[in-house]
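User: I'm curious what two different proteins look like when written out as structure tokens. Can you demonstrate?

Assistant: Sure. I'll show them one after the other, since each token string lines up with its own sequence. Here's the first protein:
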Amino acid sequence: MARPDSGYMVDRSGTPGRNRRWLPWTGVGAALGALVWTAIPWLRRATLGTRPYVGTVFDVGSLGGWLLMAGGLVGFRLAYGDRYGRLGRASVGTTAVGMSLVALLYVRSVLAFVRAGLRPVPATGEDPAGLVLTWAFLLGFGLILAGTGGLGLALRRVDGGLTLTTGLLVLAAVLPAVAVGLRFGAVLPLPVGRLLVGTNVAFVPLGAAWVALGYRVWEEYRR
């Protein structure tokens, strides 16, 4: 029979319906994808240094991790249906649009890597599309962070209070905004500012939040 409140189909024995058995694995995939996506910039920095590249093999890994994270968002939407209300629906949509924009940026880097014969493509000179890409990056992650924070608040209503997952989702939205604001306000020490600009440390909370969200999706389907 069906659970109308979650949109998740189960059979009479309470086990997942055949057409939905893959859904718990969207949560597992989201958690693994988040770990990969969070770790890859550090591996790239250790391997290739700080020189900018248009495309490398690491972008392939980032795209794969990112798509797994996006799959977790689909699983989350199907798991909770309308239980998280308008805020939850709006947050899922906002996050989905942001993730789509960022995915296109990763696809562009992967295509550059493939066209170069699977060799790293260093960034040379001015990229005519540089300004557009920068704004797409800022808009994409701005939407993702806003949506992630909204998901945390919406889940808090479902849970009836603060949980680890809801706390991480809200922090994932707040901490990067605060860090970037302090960086551009010249409040942070110079080494810390360079760390924020040169690595993805500001997005580590987002990766942690997505690991928790993935586990939450898996747990919801396995009940």
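Here's a second, unrelated protein for contrast:
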Amino acid sequence: MVDRTTISRDKPVLTSQRINTRPGGGTYDGTFIDDWEYIPGSGDLDQCNGMTQNGVYGYVVTATYPHVLGCFTGSPDPSFNKHPPNRG
């Protein structure tokens, strides 16, 4: 199963998640998290379902597993910090 998602209009993106092979042959059906395996370098997305494009890292929503981010990576920009309201 190959999932291609478009980040920009001219660049298809390939996920790096694949359905595991069962010991002794056969495959899982993808119902459970453990049915899937991250294979580094097999696609464009990293283990968190993200990639860097034009120097900016972002998570990608895909049509198949893992659908949304699988983990967090890096450090958030300080602009995401919330400040308590000034109640002076």
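A detail about the second structure: DSSP finds no helices and six strands in the chain.
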